[in-house]
Amino acid sequence: MSRLRIFDENHPGAIRFESEDGAAIAARLAPAGVRFERWEAAAPVQPGASQDEVIAAYKPDIDRLMAEGGYQAVDVVSLTPDHPDKAALRQKFLNEHTHSEDEVRFFVGGQGLFTLHIGETVYELLCRQGDLVSVPANTRHWFDMGPEPSFIAIRLFTNPAGWVANFTGSDIAERFPRLEAA
After folding, report:
1. Maximum CA extent, the chain
2. Total domain count, the chain
3. Which CA distances in Å does 172 have to 12, 39, 164?
4. Domain ranges, residue 156
C-alpha cells in the first residue's frame, strides 16, 4: 500500500499526519498542487513485457493525463536489484532538487519514495504498484529507490531532453528517512 506521512521541516522525527488511504493522500497533496491517483491496467501486464505493451495496458489513463497536462512524450523505466549501476543511480536523486517541468511517474510495479519539501512542510510519499504521482515543476523534492531498487515506472514529459535535476544545495534530505527506513 502507498503511504503519505507529513512532517514539519524542522522535526523529522515527529509525524503530523499519516495515511494509507488513497483518497486521503490525494486530498492532502492536492492543495500543494501534487496529483496522486491510483490506476488499474486495461489489460494484464506480463513479466518481461515490452515498453509498448506496458504503455498499451495503461493507454486510457496515459492519454487522459497527456491531454490534461500537455505532455508530449511517454516512456517506461525499469530497474532491478542486479543493475550494475544501482548505487550511482540511487545517489543521483537523493538530495533535494527541482525540475523545470513536472515529474510524472506511474508505478507499474515495485516502489519508490518521493519526499516533497513545500514551504515548511515535508511530504513523504511511498509509491507502490498502481500509484501515480505528479510533482509540479520547480517543487523541491528528492527521490529514493532504495539500496535494492525494484520498480517499473511510466514517465510522462513535456520535454524529455529538458528533464534535469537542479540541486538546491540544502542538506534537508539527509535528515529524513530513506526508503529502507520509511
Report:
1. 45
2. 1
3. 9, 31, 20
4. 39-119+127-170
